[in-house]
Amino acid sequence: MVRIRLRQVGAKRQPSYRIVAADKESPRDGRFLEILGFYNPRTNPATIAIKEDRVYDWLSKGAQPSESATQVFRSAGLLERYERFKHGESVEVLMQEAAQAEAIRNVNPKTERSATRTGTK
Question: Which of 48, 51, 62, 118 gets the highest tally of CB atoms within 10 A of its CB?
């Protein structure tokens, strides 16, 4: 059985995660089938980058997301778009919506911090 789950990367005490499709039996940071995205909870707001078309493909093949991956997908709005995909909406339309949502959600944290430091924001 294939699971969509988080794979920890990054230095000690500074985790970031890759969203991967992996066999259920493989270890957390072990072998995986495909990288589906990236999640960094340490930025404000959290950085989420997901290849939604590939996630739709894996979910339609029967892959099960883990609880943590489900929370990331829910915060990105992916699960609502997947339901619309299952009901026959075009992938191209959904991908355009996902790109717009990602542009709004992923603000460059370095730019955000520098603007607040100088007081220009």
Answer: 48
Q: Tens of pLDDT along the chain (121 residues)?
A: 999 999 999 888 899 999 999 999 888 778 899 999 999 999 888 889 999 889 999 999 999 999 999 999 999 888 888 888 888 888 888 888 888 888 777 766 565 544 455 555 5
Of the candidate CATH numbers 3.10.129.10, 3.90.700.10, 2.40.110.10, 3.30.1320.10, the domain formed by 2-107 belongs to 3.30.1320.10
Domain layout of the chain by residue ranges? 2-107
